[in-house]
């Protein structure tokens, strides 16, 4: 399929392929790191670093290990979390606001009235508290299922099925 | 294996979230190859998550920002070498201009110095020319003098120091053919201020002095040889120190030198 071919070209250091993959995922990666660092400039820098790293380490990706998006998502979350642990970051941002991704999305004055934007806004406004938390932890913060279950004080199996339901709602809204 | 149950378990959502173990990932990878409906499910989950996460981004930067960096990285090895030549060229340029500047300054300096040299050389030349001219004149005079002295018609008359002036001497070369005497007065001191040497021709019997004149330029004459006309039948020559302007008769106590003409010569 198309994506596999793109990834193969990307791994062969084809810049056009890289550009296409960047087009597909950069906004998501930016969203994820922004949600962690809560600073546009730092998020910009981190996102660049993430893609540069992916470019240089493209050989280490294998579809057997998971989805390409998941691979980049992992790099991004790790980079962003490392950043928040750095001394300089801690000093400059004493009071990280505790907004979840939902608050950020709700706070955006979306100028583009794309179907996705409207759909997602509707989605987050109707999303239950449990869904917000599960998605936040699993996708944005990179918590494991076990960590999420401890954080949310719910059984591991429940995390899994709840997450499935939440994502299903999202799919209904945006796909 | 019941695909629908598998899907409903929520494992694919965790797969996309990246929360499964390596073994589980490998398992799902194999299943995806066998079951297109599973793959379709994964793609939809991923697509939804991509959209959701993208919605959080206030605004992501374009690819250009990345492109510059990867291109810079890729050209790194080439670029690393490049600054050197460019620096080298820059340094060479500066060095050259400094050299040129120094060179120009030096040349100008040198030029001024040379001009001064030429001027002083010219001056020296003119001075030397004068000296050569003088020397030539001197040489001609000396040759002439030598010829005079060597002339066999010449009568040599040595004049000895007299009385208090015993250390004085002089010599007269008398050419009777042209009525000229050449007085070599190198053995006389300079005349004191207000005084002058006066040369006398004498006949002895009776003693009659005849003035041959005063030597007014004694001090400034180099070879102290003076040409004096003498048409007398001289028997002796004498030199006295007299008041400036000369005397009609010699002051005998100031007779410095005196010499008798040897009749045989």
Word description of this protein:
The complex is a heterodimer of chains A (175) and B (265). In chain A, 75% of the residues lie in helices and 0% in strands. Chain A has two domains: 2-92, RNA polymerase sigma factor, region 2, helix turn helix motif (Rna Polymerase Sigma Factor, Chain: A), CATH 1.10.1740; 101-174, Arc Repressor Mutant, subunit A (Orthogonal Bundle), CATH 1.10.10. The two termini of chain A are 20 Å apart. With 175 residues, chain A is mostly helical. In chain A, helix 7 (115-126) packs antiparallel against helix 10 (156-174) and helix 9 (145-152) crosses helix 10 (156-174). Chain A is built from ten helices and no strands. Chain A has helices at residues 2-11, 15-37, 40-56, 68-85, 87-92, 101-107, 115-126, 129-140, 145-152, 156-174. In chain B, strand 4 (195-204) and strand 5 (207-215) form a beta hairpin. Among the domains of chain B are: 3-60, no CATH class; 154-260, Sandwich (Immunoglobulin-like), CATH 2.60.40. An eight-stranded antiparallel sheet of chain B has the order 5-4-7-8-1-2-3-6.
Write the layout of secondary structure elements.
The complex is a heterodimer of chains A (175) and B (265).
Chain A: H1 2-11, H2 15-37, H3 40-56, H4 68-85, H5 87-92, H6 101-107, H7 115-126, H8 129-140, H9 145-152, H10 156-174
Chain B: H1 3-8, H2 11-17, H3 22-34, H4 36-56, H5 64-74, H6 76-81, H7 83-150, E1 154-161, E2 170-175, E3 180-184, E4 195-204, E5 207-215, E6 225-229, E7 236-243, E8 255-260
Antiparallel strand pairs in B: 1-2, 1-8, 2-3, 3-6, 4-5, 4-7, 7-8
What characteristics describe this protein?
heterodimer; A: 175 residues; mainly alpha; Rna Polymerase Sigma Factor, Chain: A; Arc Repressor Mutant, subunit A; B: 265 residues; alpha+beta; Immunoglobulin-like; 8-stranded antiparallel sheet; 8 strands; 50% helix
């Amino acid at each position: 399929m198309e994506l596999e071919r793109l990834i193969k070209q990307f791994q062969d250091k084809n810049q056009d392929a890289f550009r296409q993959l960047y087009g597909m995922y950069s906004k998501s990666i930016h969203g994820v790191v922004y949600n962690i660092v809560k600073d546009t400039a730092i998020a910009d820098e981190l996102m660049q670093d993430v893609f540069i790293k992916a470019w240089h380490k493209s050989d280490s990706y294998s579809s057997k290990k998971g989805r390409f998006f998941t691979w980049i998502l992992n790099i991004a979350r790790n980079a962003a979390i490392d950043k928040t642990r750095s001394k300089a970051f801690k000093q400059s941002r004493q009071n990280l606001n505790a907004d979840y991704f939902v608050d950020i999305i709700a706070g955006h004055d979306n100028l583009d009235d794309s179907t996705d934007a409207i759909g997602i806004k509707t989605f987050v406004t109707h999303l239950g508290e449990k869904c917000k938390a599960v998605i936040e932890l699993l996708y944005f913060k990179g918590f494991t299922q076990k960590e999420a279950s401890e954080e949310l004080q719910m059984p591991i199996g429940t995390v899994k099925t709840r997450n499935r339901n939440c994502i299903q709602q999202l799919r209904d809204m945006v796909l | 294996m019941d695909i629908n149950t598998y899907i409903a378990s929520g494992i694919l959502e965790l797969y996309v979230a990246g929360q499964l173990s390596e073994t589980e990932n490998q398992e799902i990878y194999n299943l995806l190859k066998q079951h297109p409906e599973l793959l379709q499910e994964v793609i939809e989950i991923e697509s939804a998550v991509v959209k959701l996460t993208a919605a959080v981004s206030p605004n992501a930067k374009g690819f250009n920002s990345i492109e510059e960096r990867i291109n810079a990285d890729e050209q790194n090895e080439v670029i690393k070498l490049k600054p050197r030549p460019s620096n080298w060229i820059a340094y060479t340029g500066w060095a050259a201009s400094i050299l040129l500047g120094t060179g120009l300054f030096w040349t100008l300096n040198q030029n001024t110095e040379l001009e001064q040299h030429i001027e002083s050389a010219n001056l020296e030349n003119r001075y030397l020319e004068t000296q050569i001219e003088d020397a030539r004149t001197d040489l001609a005079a000396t040759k002439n003098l030598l010829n005079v002295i060597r002339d066999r018609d010449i009568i040599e008359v040595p004049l000895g120091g007299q009385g208090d002036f015993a250390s004085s001497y002089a010599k007269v070369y008398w050419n009777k053919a042209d009525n000229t005497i050449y007085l070599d007065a190198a053995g006389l001191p300079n005349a004191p201020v207000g005084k002058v040497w006066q040369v006398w021709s004498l006949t002895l019997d009776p003693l009659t002095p005849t003035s041959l004149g005063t030597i007014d330029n004694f001090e400034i004459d180099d070879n102290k040889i003076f040409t004096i006309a003498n048409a007398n039948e001289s028997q002796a020559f004498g030199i006295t120190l007299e008041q400036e302007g000369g005397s009609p008769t010699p002051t005998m106590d100031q007779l410095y030198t005196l010499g008798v003409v040897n009749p045989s010569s």
